[in-house]
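How a chain folds remains the central question behind the approach discussed here. For one protein, we set the task of working out the structure tokens from the amino acid sequence alone. The sequence in question and its structure tokens are set out directly beneath this paragraph.

_____
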Amino acid sequence: MPPQTTLGITVEYSPGRTALNMDPYLRTMVAKHGLQECNVPKIPMTPGFTLQKADCPTNDVERESIAEQAAILFPNQGITDYKSACSTYRSVTMAIAWYANSIGGELQVCTSILGRGMQSACIKGFKALKQLLRYCKGEIGKELIYVKTREWGPHEFPQLKFFSDASFNDDPDTSKSQGGFVGSFDDQAAAVFSSGQSATVMVSTYAAEKHFVFKTCKQIMYLRMWLNEVGIPQLAPTPIFCDNAATVSDLNCTVPKVTRNNKHFTLQTRYANECADLGHVKIIKADGKDLVADALTKVLPREAFHRYSNRMHYGAHALSNVLANQGGALTEFAI
């Protein structure tokens, strides 16, 4: 088939390979801000970056100062006052979020953090947003690549697997947790990904991990039912790799236990127990130092960020070919 474009995503087909990119969208976004010739930073955001209320302006003088600095950072946007500065901040953040939500999942945690400053933009947020926008220039040419790895028999079907992870108490204002999940078929590029902040305050890493396993289970149940409808049944429980031993032990227990450590959990988290009891999912302990979903819980250092980004975009099969074409070697890779 010829390339197909919809909602800014170009799908290119070739024998044994399907690739998704958003190059025209990214070029337009970068050109709109006059960054065609900018230097691309090594990482999209400084590790450990957060936004908090203390960063926001509290009076008109501070707002005017932010507007003046924002006009220098984004000279093509016609920023004249704080209101127009906030409008620019929201516009740029949402433009990058569309790419992040479509194929650039490794940037979701960045747009999630910056999105918290939409109502009261601060200069710290503007500088981080400019760095992220410059980084998007380097995303031009990056694809989600799915490759054919075998001939499937009449009763054989590709199976899903997911990775879930969560941080704990990383929002300085609300003490809420950031977490997310990544799902794919065996050793392929990511098919679904999500990063966001917990709806309520988690009182332990155990609670945070189980909360985001619950969110993962919801996505899995939707996909399992949809795949069954289109003739690709999931013949075994969908594995969820998680690095929290208490969560793994709890969800794999055939008789759910109520203890002083989990009796406060909401009914939502009990949903994960039911999914495991009914055989829809299986929770597997994974090494926390090599869990791809870690990229959706916080801003990572350069090496870890790029390692997980490559896993999400290429999967094991396509990445080996990409590195071979670049003269590199495939090392420390397991998705």
Summary: Residues 153-325 form a domain with the Nucleotidyltransferase; domain 5 fold (CATH 3.30.420.10).
